[in-house]
Design goal:
246 residues, alpha/beta, Nucleotidyltransferase, domain 5, five-stranded mixed sheet, rod-shaped, disordered N terminus, DNA-directed DNA polymerase activity
């Protein structure tokens, strides 16, 4: 699977870096402490541009060259038999570094993943990651009140991000989930509305030329004596006319 996705990466590797380009990633390991000989067994990376996935991703399993403890297998479901024929991290690290370039990396509880990746890089004689790393765990801790659970699962539930596609932890699946959570931590899709530069267009009814004929104003003349007498006679003949009460 990793090789197939790597082929997709090669086809798009000429795409120039752009502002807002970041890489959400996650790892699965044989344990909690690289200092105790634990290794990375899976990595998943999702490319995002302006917080939205671009469709480019990287995924690979690794042979850790050691036995998988049961407690770790219970978390991600990866066992010795499945990982036996997978490549070593040292066979793939150049692909990973080329894929992310110098762009910022995004991870949940990022210190854990950073520590493991740096340990793997030391094994192959490379220096530690130089990328800026964004920790969504720390973002969530600052965003929500103290005591709020900010695990990836808890944040998915809080933001109504479906966990239906995941029964066990997986690096690529969790990277996709985290990309959605990361968007919500920045305000969701609503943040894309740039209200500061939006102008409201008011439709003004079109004024059509008036083609109707213009009639001359009526000129009222002064009534003659006969006309006044006829009017007064008409009024006197009316019963209870208000004019007779004046």
């Amino acid at each position: 699977m990793g090789k197939q996705i790597m082929g997709m990466f090669n086809q798009g590797s000429a795409m120039p870096p752009a502002d807002g380009l970041q890489y959400v990633f996650d790892t699965e390991t044989t344990g909690l402490h690289p200092s105790q000989g634990h290794r990375v067994v899976e990595i998943g990376i999702v490319e995002i541009l302006d917080l939205l996935p671009t469709g480019r991703e990287y995924h690979q399993y690794f042979n850790p060259q050691r036995n998988m403890p049961k407690e770790a297998e219970d978390v991600h479901g990866l066992n010795d038999q499945f990982l036996r024929d997978k490549p070593l991290f040292g066979d793939c690290y150049e692909e990973i570094l080329e894929f992310v370039g110098s762009h910022p990396l995004v991870a949940h509880n990022a210190k854990f993943d950073e520590r493991f990746l740096n340990a793997e890089l030391r094994r192959v004689g490379r220096g530690p990651l130089q990328n800026r790393i964004v920790d969504t765990f720390e973002i969530a801790r600052k965003k929500f009140p103290a005591g709020t659970r900010v695990t990836l699962d808890a944040l998915c539930k809080k933001f109504n991000v479906s966990l239906a596609s995941r029964s066990l932890h997986g690096a690529l699946i969790d990277s996709h989930l985290l990309a959605k959570v990361y968007l919500h931590l920045h305000g969701g899709l609503e943040r894309k509305l740039d209200l500061g530069t939006t102008t409201t267009k008011v439709e003004v009814p079109q004024q059509h030329e008036n083609t109707r004929p213009v009639r001359p104003s009526r000129v009222l003349g002064v009534p003659s004596a006969c006309e006044l007498e006829a009017h007064n006679s008409f009024i006197r003949g009316m019963k209870n006319a208000i004019w007779n009460k004046a």
